[in-house]
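User: Predict the complex.
Assistant: Input components as received:
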Amino acid sequence: MSLMQDERVVVRHGLLRTRRWSLRYDVRALLVCVTLAVLAACAMVFAIGTGTYELSPPEVVRTLAGDGPPGAEFIVIDLRLPRALVAVLVGFGMGMAGAVFQSLTRNPLGSPDITGFGNGASAGALVAIILFDGGDAQTAIGAVCGGFATAVAVYLLAWKRGVHGYRLVLVGIGASAVLGSATSYLYVRADIGKAAQAATWMIGSLNARDWGEVRIAALGLVLLVPVVLVCARRLTMLEMGDDTAGALGVPPERTRLLLLCAGTGLTAMAVAAAGPIPFVAMAAPQLARRVTRAPGPNVLPAAWMGALLVSAADLATQRVTGSALLPVGVVTGVAGGAYLAWLLRAERKADRV
Amino acid sequence: MFIGMASRPSRKRLVEGRGARERRSRTSVRASGLLLGLALLVGAVALSLAVGTKQIPLDQVWSALFSPSGTENDAIVRDLRLPRTLIGIAVGAALGLGGGVMQTLTRNPLADPGLLGVNAGASAAVVTAISVLGITSFSGYLWFALAGAALAATAVNSLGGGRYATPVRLALAGTAVNAALFGYVNGLQLWDLSTLDAMRYWSVGTLAKRDASLLVAVAPLLVAGALLAFALARPLGAIALGEDHARALGTKVKRTRVLSVVAITLLCGGATAVCGPIGFIGLMIPHAARAFCGPDPRWLLPFCALYAPVLLLLSDVIGRIVVPPSEIEVGTVTAFLGGILFIHLVRRRKVAQL
């Protein structure tokens, strides 16, 4: 029953059948998902325990169950739990969005932070904060609008008898530059109070998150994750090419548009909650694919991998600096840049770029 | 047969005559382009001296420059705007030349010192010098800027595939290196709040609050880089034909490559050390110039050196007047304009090899 056979991976499928429906699932992918979820939960518990008021993991768990040491409840439930939850939710959304985009563009570099959708969402959030004086909800709406506007613009600009993967990426790099300068223009214009509020949306950060942001991130996931999961199998068909997908009964353009909207929505909601944390959307699907060794978009494993990456990066940031002031986006930016460089090298060796 | 033989010499002379005439007219077009560039540069300098929070009429600018009488306007022009303008000219010319050399060398229309991580490398090295090593003098971190620029240029070039680099690979490698380096710069700034003030300029390029003494310190490097670039114009033109052709024409390919990288490092590293990372000037100007004077580096490089300062000064003036009480950094303005141009270039399929 070994997974390796003649050096080829044999993907074992489990089958769940009732009278009405049946569900086929990949055993290894399922195991990977469970493992990643458990790891993410561990990172979360450790992150909650870290800080000026140290708590051991068992204490954290007991406090979460409502039976902790005196005084811990306020710190855990009101201060640290929202931050940890935002990390997991945002990572989940970004990982899933990354898997969708990379599969749609058939390109590991087609993730929302390179194609400029993340920057678009952050520009939208800044417009809401600085020009319209918005609170949490308005910022979220601004981020979603900005994300969608950028997605539409980049898609149309890259359109030339179909959207070629690399053209989308390169147009996205240009759009990122334009949006980045628009963002810093707004940033310079703002008065200092708003600028401090806006700083989070320049580089992703988890500092001072409260339950409002948890709600925003959770809302995005509740609305959009089912859409993506329902379409995930169609996405696998699309990877075989439009003609094949069409012959197998998947309408290519409609599916692509729907998934593009869902992916952009996921990105935008994540940005609305924590700012554009760089490279999670790019790295998570790649890592997930290497762990599950399964073809196809690996939507769910990528999502859990994203959750693990962000909460681990958050934990690392807090542990290394001793304070929670360094934005988590700095850590993922440096690590992600190095990872992208390595990815390019590997791609070149395989002659794919 | 007879008719053919008789007619051939005359036709040949005709063709030669047309070629010579075309060459002459092309030369005169190019020369007048250079003159136009000079005129535009003078205009941009005048604007840069006159426009700002306080508008100063041109006749007063003139008198402030050549017969100062100690008025407030004289002080503004001589102490604030003149150094800024001079730095703008020097840095603009350096970035334009750097971009021109880089695009010719890599035969890559998307090559740009900002896009390919050179500016980010210089920026990261300067921030390290200030924060970790406690260096505060300009002459001290100038060398760090140069070293950082050289390292980043080498890293991006090797990641992008070295001799087999394609525009796409290079752009992506540049993105990766930029992301990592800017993440590092941001992180260091937030980590070490005490030196944040000194380092702030190295995250966005700006001409504001720059001292003329910086220009004096960096001028030898920029001049050396510019001279090297002009000296390389002819071999670079040969390399543009392809390495085999260049070798057949007697060009020392390897030496030209190394010297070009040295020139790019001097020009872009020096410019970044003075003003922080200013992107896209080196991308836009060679393109505009090539449309005007053709790809020959012997003409292209002077065009770049003349028109790039025009663009930089005008971008700076735009940054001064868009939000009246405050200013936008010139790096922001050039990134905005340059991003739009970049998208336009990518959409032209031939150029991006897509």
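The mean pLDDT of chain B is 80.
Let me know if you want any component modeled separately.
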